[in-house]
């Protein structure tokens, strides 16, 4: 969920070969008490494959704090991925899903034509909160599929020469995630032991990026700080890795996304009209109207989030070209 009301156009382009492009985060307030580092969309890089939104948060000391508190809000046209490194998040949605997502577990919500959900740190909760929130744009007609929620607690692992990896989505070698996606995609949580060195195999038709979450991994010859995103481009069959301290990063990849998109607030659409209609339907629902496109989140104590006003400038779809 994003609290930013301004217009953001999801737009990306593959370079046609390997690059090494470092993206620094910008800080954004999420909900009542969580500040995140936003890596995608950025000014120069809007997407990596179908990944169109990447937030990294924490590690935050929340022993005496409420932690994450995000009231019910709507989504269309995307999948959300909740990935925790420390702490836990209580997910509720309008399908009736009620799940506590913990580190190493995949919370995968498919919005499709429409869903509402809330995210909260439970009470009581762990003293640390650290994780990533990611969005995947749904392609073509898949954007109007029925909503669903998946909670996978047993994900495939890959280990080799000081490297251990958990496959969130897609496939790494023979290890395939049970999470259902709708375009060729990869998401892997990689841990490097101190002194580890080697190479990670990549799919050359994918574009890839690395989100560093801890330590100081050396990826493609560059030492990366936590909270940064290194875009690697396309055409790579492997990427060299090293680590002096213990390090951890998320590898994200996918076939360059062809559809034209508009991303505004919590909606991924194909036109300004589509987004405006979704906003109007959400506002009608929370005002007690008869429309039930998104539905109510039962069990959450509090009011849902109201949508911000639409911007005065038209919401226009754009493609991968700048």
Automatic annotation (TrEMBL):
It comes from the Bacteria. InterPro entries: Pirin, Pirin_C_dom, Pirin_N_dom, RmlC-like_jellyroll, RmlC_Cupin_sf. Residues 35-136 form the Pirin N-terminal domain. Residues 188-284 form the Pirin C-terminal domain. It holds the Pfam family Pirin. Belongs to the pirin family. PANTHER family: PIRIN, PIRIN-RELATED. This is Pirin family protein.
